[in-house]
Each structure stands twice: as structure tokens, then as C-alpha cells.
Amino acid sequence: MLETFYAYWPHIFLVLSIVMGVPAAIHATMTKVEVRSAVGWVGVIILSPFIGALLYLIAGVNRIRRNVLGFQRSRVQYGAFAHLEAYDVASETVATSFGHRFLAMKTLGDRVARHAFTTGNAIEVFDTGDKAYGEMLKAIASAERSILLETYIFDRDRIGTRFAEALIQAARRGVAVRVLIDAVGARYSVPSILGMLRDGGVRVEVFNGNVIIGLRLPYANLRTHRKIIIIDGTVAFTGGMNIREGFSAEISGDASAFDTHFRVTGPVVTDLFAIASEDWQFESDEVLDGDAWQITEPQKQPGEPVLLRAVGSGPDRSNETNHKMLMGAFSIARKSIRIVSPYFLPDRELITALITAARRGVTVDIVVPDANNLTLVDRAMTAQFDQILKNYCRIWRATGAFDHSKLMAIDGCWAYVGSSNLDPRSLRLNFEVDLEVLDRDFAETLERRIDKTIETASAVTLDGLRNRPFVVRLLERILWLGSPYL
After folding, report:
1. Which CATH number fits domain 73-89+118-306: 3.30.230.10, 1.10.150.120, 1.10.3370.10, 3.30.870.10?
2. Partners of 391 in beta bridges
3. 68-124 per-position pLDDT tens digit
4. How far is CA 32 from the centre of its chain?
5. Which of 214, 238, 239, 448 sits between 20 and 30 A of 47, alpha carbons compared?
6. Domain PLD phosphodiesterase spans what residues (predicted)?
7. Contact call for residues 222 and 426 (beta carbons, < 8 A)
């Protein structure tokens, strides 16, 4: 057998390369929407026989074709609340209160997002981990019927252990508890939190893989980056904050990182539940219905503020929804675009939209951390700063601890917050969830926070970028070439 293999291994390798390479090249040609991406992958597959096809299988397939619930509102358990449609935002309301350009944004969201723009919501901002964790733990402790938690990272550290213990106690008192953790995010701590939760009686699943065996091929590059907690179908928490002690000043002191998280109530809770429960069903085959998962009736009346939309995006039928929302927002801006992002690596389309807005006279401010937790990403994003700075936009390096927040405000009226970074992974590969908020008070709150950050930030300048050593700039450009996979 071995003698035959040694004699014919070139022929075997050739056959395997053809068997694997031809379908991979066809798949890339037929499924990629950008010609550069299609040509690049076909080139890799042809020039690297066998290995190229394997790389494509691991990192090139960026759509999950899954049997989703296809949530219609009639399928969600509303209990006594049977008229959710009454909370949908009327086009006349937006046009009258905010103008026709924001009506255009509503129309865009109606057409590309799966969930409606609703009235009768409330949103509260937590700008530190201690505040957010404290409120989430309090809500978990008061849960009576159900807890649904989906997150990217859930560390087995002092903060993670607090959450695990609270979830275990809830399960023991009869609360239906479901926890979904990303397969990559679950590996951030060793041992993972999974064993503690399962030993305590909490039903937990891993998204898109198995922590011990490995990731699910061919979708190993696709992750859930969503952070959602829903308590009793009444209140939800979402935003950018993972569950880990690095964001707690109580534990990490002055070295703790910053992030922003949100507590919401109202009809938007229904849509956040739809997003998270769909992900849960994808992994567990369990449909979350019945009395425990009923959505409670909002306390506010239809037509009252705040206007909110839950925007789910990811490599399935919601592919690039967040990208489309951002393109629309940049196009309707008239006065200001304010962005806070830890990983700022927008594609050419978004850069063009930003610099076009700046050329129209819109003030564009982009705030990124001075100290980043991902050095390679920071180097790659620095490589394209010149494209933005030479076209009337401003970039600021925020001093102090690392800020993981993802915030955006347009003209002091419209805001977009949640889990999406402005990088290729969030915009095309990850499952993300964001909130579209049309409310002047909320948008102005974000802008005041951004202004406060800029006061102590250092401006990035073209001269400063160009005066650095050539070797440093070359390294950044090389890393930038690989930015779609960072």
C-alpha cells in the first residue's frame, strides 16, 4: 500500500487538487459579490493546489444557509399583548418630527432590516462595566420566568463567575435559562465557563462549533458577536460589552477598559428576542415558546418615544445589513457624523461615503483608542488613515484606557449603537446586533460624550503619519492587506 502511494503520490495529489479545487473555484466564482474577492480566491485556489482549496473552505465561505425561524409576530408569544403593529413608526411621524431625509433612513431600514421601527421604547446608557454588570446581575436575580443570554465572550473569571452563579441560582428557582456562547469566544478563558454552567443545571450551547472538538467547517470563520440578555420578555440588555473582568474597575482598577451597554424596554424587546432565539434554535433545535417565553406588553402607549429598531446582521439572509444602514446614514448627514470605534477598518465604499459627506461640508469626527488591545488591527487601520485625513475628515486618538464602545451619531438626531465594529469582520463575517435610534435627546447624549473624549484626545495628522519611519509604514500596509481576516 505504501509502495503504491510513494510511486503514485504526484498523481494522487493532482487528482485531489482537481477534486477539491474545481468545486472551490466554482463556488467562489458563483457566490462572491465583489470581483476582487472572487479573483483573489480563485487565484489562491489555482496557485496553491489542495492548500488553497482548504484555506477557502476554512476562511472563504462567508454565508451560513440555515433553517431560521423566519419570525413573524404572530409566532412570538405576546400573552395579552396582541397588537404590536400599533407601535410601528408611521412615516408621517418621522417626516413631521425629523424631516424627509430621516424618513428616507426609515424607508431604508424597512427594506433591508428584518424588524420594524417602533415607538413606545425606552433606552438607558451604561458607560462603565461596573454599572452595566450590576444592572444585568440585578435583572437576572429578579427573573421569574425566563432568561435568554447570547454573547461572544463569557470568561471564567471573577465577573464571569458572578454571572454563572446568578444564572445557576435562577435555574434552581425554576426560571427557564438558556445561554449561547460563541465557540471562539468561549476559548478566551481556560477552562471555559461551559462546565460550570452545565454542572449548575443551566442549559448552554456553543455557537458554530464545539470548544473541545473544534469549529464547524466550512463556517469556522463565522462567529456570533452579539451581546443580548432578555429577562422575562420585559427588559433587554445589548451593546458592545462582553462578560469579563477586564471591563470592571472594581476588579481591574485604573487598567479597566471602557465599553458602552444599553438597557431597553418596549416593543424592541420582542425583536431582540426574535434575533437571539433564532440563534438559539440554530444550535439547539429548540423553539422558545410557551408561557415562560411570553413577551410582556409595553408600559408606554403607541406613538410615544423612543423610536428604536433592532438591526440584526450576519452571514445569512441578513448579510451586510449593518453596512447598508451605515451607507444610508452617511448619505443623509448634513451637519455632523460622529463615530467611536475600537477597530476602524471600513471598506472602500464606506470610506468614499465618509469623505463625500466631508466634501459636502459635513463635520466628520472619528475617535479610535490610543492604546488598542489588538496591535495588528491597530497597525492595519492606521495604514488607511491617510485616505480619510486628506479628504477633510478628522481622526482622534482617545487617551486613557482602551475603549471598546461602538457609537455613532448623525446630526444630533439619529444614532446607531450596538456590537458592530467598523471592520470587515463585523460588516461581513460576524453575526451582529445594533440599535437604530431616532431621538434627539439620545443622540445629543452620545455627542456630548464624544465631545468630552475629543477634549483630551490627540489629533492624528497627515504630517505625523508621513514622518514615521518607512519600515513602520510598510509594515502597516502589509498588515492592511490582510485586514479582511484580522
Report:
1. 3.30.870.10
2. none
3. 434 444 344 444 344 578 899 999 999 999 999 999 999 999 999 999 999 999 999
4. 22
5. 214
6. 220-247, 399-426
7. no
